[in-house]
Design brief:
The complex is a heterodimer of chains A (about 120) and B (about 110). Chain A contains no helices and 11 strands. With about 120 residues, chain A is an all-beta fold. The mean pLDDT of chain A is about 90. Chain B is built from no helices and 11 strands. In chain B, the strands form 2 sheets. In chain B, strands 2, 4, 5, 9, 10 and 11 form a 6-stranded mixed sheet that branches. A 5-stranded antiparallel sheet of chain B has the order 1-3-8-7-6, with no helix packed on it. The model of chain B has no long low-confidence stretch (mean pLDDT about 90). Classes of the chains: A mainly beta (about 120), B mainly beta (about 110).
């Protein structure tokens, strides 16, 4: 079974604090992702990484940074937390698959999520 | 135009009935399609992946893919109250995934 774990289920921080969210996967997946999910807005991609030390901006990277020093671990950093970053944060990982000799992102597995509240 | 369209619902079905969830997408190139179930306050969990045109069955769930018409559907047979959740469809590109906003399903006991 694929397992994706996140460091905290619930987190409360104050405005201006630096916040670290950790994600670890145990299936040797190449790709890792950070999303946030807000009511009515669906899943929005913050950053993703397709290899160690590689990172790519998603749709809403502002106010966030990431780190991937090891294949199994992908960290999301809120440099200076703000109240509009209160959200559910979801980490995910996936392998690359091959369909018709082309490489595609295969099934994505999610961690349990971290509900972050910034006061 | 949104890349993935789902009816937000709620879709209400009686216990034991078939629930039919639909999703249309705009990317003609994508090869991989997914259905996830998400309970309130929890993370999405994979129900099924589908890559080829046609039907794919797994227990009470059947996914149907029609690439020519650009839609993917999920049928849930013998619906149970525990199936009440939001169902997300998604497709993938080279690295990224496009998710719908989900259809909320209510199974009435």
């Amino acid at each position: 079974d694929v397992k994706v774990t996140q460091s905290s289920r619930y987190l409360v921080k104050r405005t201006g604090e630096k916040v670290f969210l950790e994600c670890v996967q145990d299936m040797d997946h190449e790709n890792m992702f950070w999303y946030r999910q807000d009511p009515g807005l669906g899943l929005r991609l913050i950053y993703f990484s397709y290899d160690v030390k590689m990172k790519e901006k998603g749709d809403i990277p502002e106010g966030y940074s990431v780190s991937r020093e090891k294949k199994e671990r992908f960290s999301l950093i809120l440099e200076s937390a703000s109240t509009n970053q209160t959200s559910m944060y979801l980490c995910a990982s996936s392998l690359m698959g091959e369909v018709k000799r082309e490489r595609w992102a295969d099934t994505q597995y999610f961690g349990p999520g971290t509900r972050l509240t910034v006061l | 135009q949104k890349e993935v369209e789902q009816n937000s619902g709620p879709l209400s079905v009686p216990e034991g009935a078939i629930a039919s969830l639909n999703c249309t997408y705009s990317d003609r190139v994508s090869q991989s399609f997914f259905w996830y179930r998400q309970y309130s306050g929890k993370s999405p969990e994979l129900i099924m992946s589908i890559y080829s045109n046609g039907d794919k069955e797994d227990g009470r769930f059947t996914a149907q893919l029609n690439k020519a018409s650009q839609y993917v559907s999920l049928l849930i047979r013998d619906s149970q109250p525990s199936d009440s959740a939001t169902y997300l469809c998604a497709f993938s590109g080279t690295y990224k995934y496009i998710f719908g906003t989900g259809t909320r399903l209510k199974v009435l006991a």
